[in-house]
């Protein structure tokens, strides 16, 4: 039987829709495949990586250094660094109060997420150790009063993390910190650049736990520490 031309045209247009959700015979011009879903809002606008602010402190009873860095997506930048001059205060109690108040002011201004501080150094000069320990204590008290986590790092570990050499000089540490932070640092402020190094060290060891040193220092280590840090102790 001869099929009319008009009917033949309709047969050509009428096919089984290959859309699996469509089970009816219909005109192919009317049945359309569903379009792919558009990207979700979260994919179109990815959430920005949170910025972490780290406060590094290099305590002392004559001069104390501080350094603040911000880290976002693994990129570090310097926010602030400086020193607290304590030698001008007549009593040890005033020095501790000034140090505590300065660190607290920095915390309230820059809102650090974590604090990194140099681990206490064990040596033979008991009086110097006690005074330095008290300075570290008031710094830690300031952070604890604002519920800021504290991590301690041994001086050698800081140098090793920043320069690759645990016996690096202060000048080498300062130079490398400036390179890592892409900042032009004042080489006269070694206490401040040391504090920045402590903050950078903490960034490199984000999952570190507070250090507890059970080993005795090597003979002469305390003397070397005092000679390299004349402004750290009275």
TrEMBL record:
CDD domains: RuvC. It catalyses: Endonucleolytic cleavage at a junction such as a reciprocal single-stranded crossover between two homologous DNA duplexes (Holliday junction). The gene is ruvC. This is Crossover junction endodeoxyribonuclease RuvC. GO terms for cellular component: cytoplasm; Holliday junction resolvase complex. The active site is at 58, 118, 191. Mg(2+) 2 binds at residue 118. Homodimer which binds Holliday junction (HJ) DNA. The HJ becomes 2-fold symmetrical on binding to RuvC with unstacked arms; it has a different conformation from HJ DNA in complex with RuvA. In the full resolvosome a probable DNA-RuvA(4)-RuvB(12)-RuvC(2) complex forms which resolves the HJ. Mg(2+) 1 binds at residues 58, 191. HAMAP family: RuvC. It holds the Pfam family RuvC. GO terms for biological process: DNA recombination; DNA repair. Binds 2 Mg(2+) ion per subunit. Belongs to the RuvC family. InterPro entries: RNaseH-like_sf, RNaseH_sf, X-over_junc_endoDNase_Mg_BS, X-over_junc_endoDNase_RuvC. Its main location: cytoplasm. The RuvA-RuvB-RuvC complex processes Holliday junction (HJ) DNA during genetic recombination and DNA repair. Endonuclease that resolves HJ intermediates. Cleaves cruciform DNA by making single-stranded nicks across the HJ at symmetrical positions within the homologous arms, yielding a 5'-phosphate and a 3'-hydroxyl group; requires a central core of homology in the junction. The consensus cleavage sequence is 5'-(A/T)TT(C/G)-3'. Cleavage occurs on the 3'-side of the TT dinucleotide at the point of strand exchange. GO terms for molecular function: crossover junction DNA endonuclease activity; DNA binding; magnesium ion binding. Keywords: Cytoplasm, DNA damage, DNA recombination, DNA repair, DNA-binding, Endonuclease, Hydrolase, Magnesium, Metal-binding, Nuclease. Its cofactor is Mg(2+).
């Amino acid at each position: 039987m001869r099929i009319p031309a008009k009917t033949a045209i309709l047969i050509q247009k009428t096919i089984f829709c290959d859309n699996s959700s469509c089970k009816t015979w219909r005109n192919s011009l009317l049945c359309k495949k569903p379009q792919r879903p558009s990207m979700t809002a979260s994919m179109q606008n990815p959430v920005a990586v949170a910025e972490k602010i780290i406060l590094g402190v290099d305590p002392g009873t004559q001069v104390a250094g501080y350094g603040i860095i911000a880290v976002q997506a693994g990129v570090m930048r310097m926010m602030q660094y400086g020193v607290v001059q304590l030698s001008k205060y007549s009593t040890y109690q005033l020095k501790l109060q000034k140090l505590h108040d300065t660190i607290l002011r920095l915390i309230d201004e820059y809102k650090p997420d974590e604090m990194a501080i140099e681990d206490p150094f064990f040596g033979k000069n008991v009086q110097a150790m006690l005074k330095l320990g008290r300075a570290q204590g008031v710094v830690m008290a300031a952070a604890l009063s604002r519920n800021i986590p504290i991590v301690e790092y041994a001086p050698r570990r800081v140098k090793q993390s920043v320069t690759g050499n645990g016996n690096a000089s202060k000048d080498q540490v300062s130079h490398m910190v400036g390179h890592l932070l892409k900042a032009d640092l004042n080489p006269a402020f070694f206490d401040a650049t040391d504090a920045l190094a402590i903050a950078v060290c903490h960034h490199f060891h984000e999952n570190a736990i507070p250090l507890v040193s059970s080993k005795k220092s090597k003979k002469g280590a305390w003397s070397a520490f005092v000679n390299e840090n004349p402004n750290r102790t009275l």
